[in-house]
Design a protein that fits this description.
17 helices, 72% helix
Length: 320
C-alpha cells in the first residue's frame, strides 16, 4: 500500500479527534524521526488544499496549521477569515507561529501581539502565557524602571487568569508581588534622609491608623494592597481545580508569603498556614519544604501534627 496514502489516512483521523489515531502519535513520531513534522504538514496540504480553496473554514484552519512552522505569512493568509472572527483556535496557531518552539519562527513582538489578542478575548492559556512572557522579561531586565513596568503587565494578566480560578495565575500573582516587595525594599529611599526602607518601619506604617507623611501613607497602602492581593491568590490556589505538577510550586509560593508577611503583618493563623504549606511542598518534592515547616513551627511555638496534617488543617480551620 502507498505509504503516503496510509499516513494521510492517519492524519485525517487524527484531525477528526479519533482516539485511536491520537494514541499512534508517538509511534509515527519515532518511525519518521526528524521528517515527521514536515510529513505531517505536507499531508495536511494534500488533504485540505482543494476544500480550503473552495472556502471551507475547517480546511482553511488546517492549511494554516500546515504552514505555521515554515511560513507564518502564508499561514495567516489561510487563517485570515477565521482571525477576522476572533476564532481562538486560529489565534493560537498564530501564537505558535512566533513562539520560537517546535521549529516555528521566533518573533517576540508578534508573539506578544497574538498573545495579547487572545488574552483580551479571555483565553486562559493566552493570559498565562502573556503574563509569563512579561515576567520572564522582567527578571532579565537590567533597569529597575523597566523591570517594574514589565512586572505590572505580568501582574495584570496573572490577575485576570486568577479570576478564572487558575492555579497558575494565582501562583503568578504571588511571584509578582514578591518581586514588587523585594524591589521596593531595595530601591525605596526616604526623601528627607535617603534612608532605605526596612520591615520594622513597614510594620509601623501598616499599623499606624493615621500616617504622618505621604511617604508613610504610600508604604502602608502599597503593602496592604500586596498583602490583600496575595491572600486572595492563596485562597484561589487552595480552592481551584489543582494541576498535579503545579502543587509543589503552589505550596512553596504560599508558604513563603505566609512566613514573610509576619515581618509586617503578624498573624498566628497565617503562621499555621505557612507551616502547613511548607510541609505539603516537601511532600510534593521540595527539598527544603519539611525543614522550613519545622523551623517555622519551632520559631513561633506552634505544634503541628505531621502524622495527620489534613486533620490538623481541618481542626485549625486554616482555609475555611
Amino acid at each position: 500500500m502507498d505509504t503516503n496514502y496510509t499516513f494521510d489516512q492517519w492524519v485525517w483521523k487524527l484531525d477528526q479527534g479519533d482516539v485511536a489515531a491520537n494514541s499512534q502519535w508517538d509511534q509515527y513520531c519515532a518511525q519518521y524521526g526528524s521528517r515527521f513534522y514536515a510529513m505531517l504538514d505536507e499531508s495536511r496540504i494534500r488533504i485540505y488544499y482543494n476544500a480550503a480553496c473552495a472556502g471551507d473554514q475547517k480546511a482553511r484552519y488546517w492549511m494554516g496549521v500546515s504552514y505555521a512552522r515554515t511560513n507564518p505569512d502564508v499561514a495567516q493568509q489561510w487563517l485570515q477569515p477565521l482571525l477576522d472572527k476572533n476564532n481562538m483556535s486560529s489565534i493560537r496557531v498564530m501564537q505558535m507561529c512566533y513562539a520560537g518552539a517546535a521549529g516555528c519562527t521566533g518573533d517576540p513582538a508578534k508573539y506578544e501581539y497574538w498573545l495579547t489578542l487572545g488574552a483580551k478575548l479571555g483565553d486562559l492559556g493566552s493570559q498565562i502565557s502573556l503574563a509569563d512572557h512579561y515576567y520572564i522579561h522582567a527578571l532579565e531586565s537590567t533597569t529597575f524602571n523597566q523591570k517594574w513596568q514589565l512586572l505590572l503587565q505580568a501582574e495584570t494578566w496573572y490577575i485576570e487568569a486568577t479570576k478564572q480560578r487558575s492555579q497558575r495565575g494565582a501562583i503568578g500573582v504571588l511571584k509578582v508581588c514578591d518581586e514588587f516587595e523585594n524591589g521596593m525594599m531595595a530601591q525605596f529611599r526616604f526623601s528627607n534622609s535617603n534612608q532605605r526602607l526596612n520591615y520594622a518601619f513597614v510594620k509601623e506604617c501598616v499599623n499606624n491608623s493615621n500616617p504622618s507623611t505621604n511617604e508613610e501613607a504610600q508604604i502602608k497602602d502599597t503593602f496592604l494592597d500586596w498583602f490583600d492581593e496575595r491572600m486572595w491568590a492563596c485562597d484561589v490556589a487552595m480552592h481551584c481545580q489543582c494541576e498535579q505538577d503545579e502543587m509543589r510550586n503552589m505550596y512553596v509560593a504560599m508558604g513563603a508569603f505566609y512566613r514573610n508577611s509576619q515581618s509586617y503583618m503578624p498573624d498566628l493563623l497565617n503562621v499555621k498556614r505557612g507551616i502547613y504549606c511548607f510541609y505539603q511542598a516537601g511532600q510534593y518534592g521540595d527539598s527544603l519544604g519539611l525543614r522550613n515547616s519545622r523551623e517555622m513551627a519551632r520559631d513561633y511555638g506552634v505544634w503541628f501534627d505531621e502524622s495527620n496534617p489534613e486533620g490538623w488543617k481541618i481542626r485549625e480551620r486554616l482555609f475555611d
